[in-house]
Amino acid sequence: METLSSSLCTNLAVLPRPSGPVNLRSSGSVSVLGFSLPSLKASAFPNCSRKLLIGVTKASVAVEQETRETKVALIRIGTRGSPLALAQAYETREKLMATHSELAEEGAIQIVIIKTTGDKILSQPLADIGGKGLFTKEIDEALINGDIDIAVHSMKDVPTYLPDKTILPCNLPREDVRDAFISLRAASVADLPSGSVIGTASLRRKSQILHRYPSLSVLENFRGNVQTRLRKLNEGVVQATLLALAGLKRLNMTENVTSILSIDEMLPAVAQGAIGIACRSNDDKMENYIASLNHEETRLAVVCERAFLLTLDGSCRTPIAGYACKTKDGNCLFKGLVASPDGNHVLETSRIGPYALEDMIMMGKDAGKELLSRAGPGFFG
């Protein structure tokens, strides 16, 4: 599919809004699309499978949109091309249109797809290709070079250090931070038979699963977007998988969820469920546009969690989890965790303090320093 699609679609593609969710679920399977696209008749491609036709449709729509685009957009939004990334970009567009009347006109906001390193290399575990910014580097470069005006990121993909000449003044309201368990064979992780295989690309999930359920196995290189992972689950590659509930909600695919893991069962990734919007540091107009969408409670929670991550200097090879939330009495409760990849060693800590910027930064840093001290020099090797 990649060879055929590449002749139709460049690395930067402009796409129209998907028309809505599609439920292909039948008995004993899960829905793997989440978005509907203009259909092509199978008779036009007699030798193509349905899987291939979907790729052709996406590419054809992109080319058609590019050729008929004539109006200069006021804002070009850069994003990855996965259905989830697009859903986040469209959420951003809708909020901008609702907040600023000049952006509500047709063609005022353009969606630009950028393929990142993390999207290009799917044959290796994330830990092996390592490094910061696997899913943001090329988008940041397009922003700095002026090819786009703002960048929409999943905050858990954003390195703790932002690139020079960029700022991130906005976090949209956070979605549910919990992880979802999806299986055709069991109602929960605890119900999986001994020896069952769970697919995940996350060392954070792997370590916490194996710590609680050492009789299970984890397929580590379970890469791909939500749709790809659900397809692999349908095909029996694994017996279960874990996905961020936030992503499934944004894709209108929660019908696939078997059960939801509590925070105590599976501490989420730093900034899970949060969307960040970046712009160039010298672009006051764009900064004002996106700052008007900022959700301050989410921003402060993300700042706290990222201070924890920065202190630990976590990478794709280090299972780290962190979550900050506002308590009923208005304080901040932070929980942090580091683990060995095999789940044999898990260290946890927590903090509580005022829900205020400086206090929350200090909580995150202090929690990180404690776990670094407890873990010792060889723990992160």
UniProtKB/TrEMBL annotation:
SUPFAM superfamilies: Periplasmic binding protein-like II, Porphobilinogen deaminase (hydroxymethylbilane synthase), C-terminal domain. Residues 75-287 form the Porphobilinogen deaminase N-terminal domain. The keyword Transferase applies. InterPro entries: HemC (IPR000860), Porphobilin_deaminase_cofac_BS (IPR022419), Porphobilin_deaminase_N (IPR022417), Porphobilinogen_deaminase_C (IPR022418), Porphobilinogen_deaminase_C_sf (IPR036803). GO terms for biological process: chlorophyll biosynthetic process; heme biosynthetic process. Its cofactor is dipyrromethane. Its main location: plastid. Signal peptide: none annotated. CDD domains: PBP2_PBGD_1. Pathway: Porphyrin-containing compound metabolism; chlorophyll biosynthesis; Porphyrin-containing compound metabolism; protoporphyrin-IX biosynthesis; coproporphyrinogen-III from 5-aminolevulinate: step 2/4. Transmembrane segments: none annotated. Residues 300-372 form the Porphobilinogen deaminase C-terminal domain. GO terms for molecular function: hydroxymethylbilane synthase activity. It is found in: Plastid, Chloroplast. PROSITE patterns: PORPHOBILINOGEN_DEAM. The keyword Electron transport does not apply. One of its GO terms (cellular component) is chloroplast. Keywords: Chlorophyll biosynthesis, Chloroplast, Plastid, Porphyrin biosynthesis, Transferase. Its EC number is 2.5.1.61. Tetrapolymerization of the monopyrrole PBG into the hydroxymethylbilane pre-uroporphyrinogen in several discrete steps. Belongs to the HMBS family. NCBIfam families: hemC. This is Porphobilinogen deaminase, chloroplastic. It comes from Quillaja saponaria (Soap bark tree).
